Amino acid sequence: MSTQPQPAPAAATPVRRITAPQIGARKGGEPIVSLTSYHSHTAAIVDKFADFILVGDSLGMVMHGMDSTVGVPLDLMIMHGKAVVRGTKRALIVVDMPFGSYEESPNVAFRNAAKIMKETGCGAVKLEGGSRMAETIHFLTQRGIPVMAHTGLTPQSSHVLGGFKTQGRNEDSWPAHEEDARAVDEAGAFAVVLEGMVEPLAAKITKQIAIPTIGIGASVDCDGQILVLEDMLGLNPWTPKFVKVYGQLGPMIEQAVSDYAAEVKSRTFPGPEQTYR
Ligand code: KIV
């Protein structure tokens, strides 16, 4: 893509997005399709197929080379959120609240969630935590902010959890996970991401609560699925077990860049087609 102005689309299609309540109403129905996206042009492709697009804080790792999501600032989420909203017109856009932007109090969470929604134009926010965040989720939803919750493996708490560990391997831990899911449901979340969780626990939770569960490494029993786009496109050098790689973009990019470099060196690029005469 050049940096020159692009022609405007001939007839702009009106923006009519899927809403958070519509996602909430999909409990037990056709599986909900979702992916992350952090970039306007890839978001436009994802928009054709996804019910919601998450601007997740995993962008710190897959776009900005961070070791974890803990260092992701609010402004970075807003910048990528704006790009994704600009590139899409159909899917609900959900933007992650980064670590430190919501845990302190419901008031702080409201201020930052409102900033995200006003500045990006997204339709909902996501935050990590179950029972401990129930009061905040209730506070936000009562004040006009649709909230997607995120329980199970919560990467922002990886320092407390002792790393990125699959949750629920020990059945003694199940009641706490079930309680987390119930709490966010009762607090008013419209859906909950279940991350890194053994299949029987994810299946049990999905049956127990009234809102859709969106699985990432939490089995096919969830009401929907989400993957990080860069992971499923083969752009991440490391592939976690729960990721299926649907496209090998890494090797394709490498080949294209290597062809370009060779053609520049041999002076075969730019050719006559790319030259203004
Ligand atoms: O940030 C992210 O990519 C996420 C997904 C793992 C759900 O929160």
Brief summary:
This protein has 277 residues and is of the alpha/beta class. Helices cover 37% and strands 14% of the residues.
Describe this structure in words.
The chain has 277 residues and is an alpha/beta fold. It folds into two domains: 20-246, TIM Barrel (Alpha-Beta Barrel), CATH 3.20.20; 249-277, no CATH class. The chain is built from eleven helices and eight strands. An eight-stranded parallel barrel has the order 1-2-3-4-5-6-7-8, surrounded by five helices. Helix 5 crosses helix 6, helix 6 runs parallel beside helix 8 and helix 8 (174-187) packs parallel to helix 9. The protein starts with 19 loop residues before the first helix and ends in a 12-residue tail after the last helix. Bound molecules: 3-methyl-2-oxobutanoic acid. 3-methyl-2-oxobutanoic acid binds next to strand 6.
Q: Report the portion of residues in β strands.
A: 5-15%
* Overall morphology: globular
CATH class of the largest domain: Alpha Beta
Largest sheet: 8 strands, parallel, barrel
Radius of gyration: 20 Å
- What is the annotated CATH architecture of the largest domain? Alpha-Beta Barrel
The unreliable regions are: none
- Compute the number of helices: 11
Element-by-element helix/strand order? HEHEHHEHEHEHHEHEEHH
Enter the CATH topology name of the largest domain.
TIM Barrel
Structural class: alpha/beta
What is the percent of helical residues?
Answer: 25-40%
The strands making up the biggest β-sheet line up spatially as 1-2-3-4-5-6-7-8
Distance between the termini: 21 Å
Which ligands are bound? 3-methyl-2-oxobutanoic acid
Q: Please name the fourth-level CATH homologous superfamily of the largest domain.
A: Phosphoenolpyruvate-binding domains
**Annotation, overall tally of beta strands:** 8
